Amino acid sequence: MRWQGRRGSRNIEDRRRSGGGRRAAGGIGGIAGVIILLLGWYFGVDTSQFVNVGGGSQTQQTAEVTEADERAAQFVSVTLADTEEVWTDIFREQVGERYEPPTLVLFKGATQSPCGGASAASGPFYCPADEKAYLDTSFFVTMEQRLGAGGDFAAAYVVAHEVAHHVQQELGILGQANRIRQQVSERESNAISVRIELQADCFSGIWARLAQEKFNSLERGDIAEAMNAAEQIGDDTLQRNAGRTVTPHTFQHGTSEQRQRWFARGYESGQITDCDTFSTDRL
């Protein structure tokens, strides 16, 4: 992905040197903890609420910001700037409204959000309460080493996916879907969550297509990196790799095949209307 030397976003809130809450000992350990962390390492699933069920208190930590962290922060800033320009164009041309971009919070180790604690365990996520996305820059290392989803464009896909949740928020989709989730059973709530996430994948595909058209930023193999990332973080693949029986009614993001297919659909179409995961019987 061609990103060096390009404009970065001003909508970055950098908390990496300010320290943050760190949970003390007493959390889930053993295979249960591994499963929870593995399932939470992908975007949108905040597992930090489970990490300390045995008790413990909040302490403060000062995180070391490495050269790799700085490079990742620059990359995120440029990618976020790209999403701002692309979605501004899309809203103007396809929605007829003004796009208000989100703020992206960079942190190292742990921080707090209105949606709960953010940590390496929670993975990147979007919080509609403050309309901010949260990202620990070390997550890209986790993607490559633990999930087998390395590469610049795989990392860009992470950023684009969280921004896509903000797009859903701007369109009024996310709030409505989450209100319905609070009124239905856990199984039905999970099914709605899958549709939310697959639509975000589709929106990410739209961004990838139009970013290429606008910035000529994609290189050979970039789309393959995104498709591989989509495969590695499908619910079925995550459960299988965690040594669990694949149980579709617990899925909250969709299968590997679904994630790849909806990303590809957005990339091939470039149209918001083709990403309607809520009115289709075939996800």
What does this structure look like?
- This protein is α/β, with parallel strands linked by helices and 283 residues long.
- It is built from ten helices and eight strands.
- The protein has a four-stranded mixed beta sheet with strand order 1-4-8-7, covered by helices on one side.
- Helix 3 crosses helix 5 (152-170) and helix 7 packs parallel to helix 10.
- The radius of gyration is 18 Å and the shape is globular.
- The model is unreliable at 20-61 (pLDDT under 50).
Summarize the structure.
This protein is of the alpha/beta class and 283 residues long. 50% of the residues lie in helices and 11% in strands. It is globular.
Please render the helix and strand layout as text.
Blueprint: E1 12-14, E2 20-23, H1 30-40, H2 48-51, E3 58-61, H3 67-95, E4 103-107, E5 110-113, E6 116-119, E7 125-127, E8 132-136, H4 139-145, H5 152-170, H6 173-181, H7 186-215, H8 222-232, H9 235-241, H10 256-269
Parallel strand pairs: 1-4, 4-8
Antiparallel strand pairs: 2-3, 5-6, 7-8
Helix pairs in contact: 3-5, 3-7, 5-7, 5-8, 6-7, 7-10, 8-10
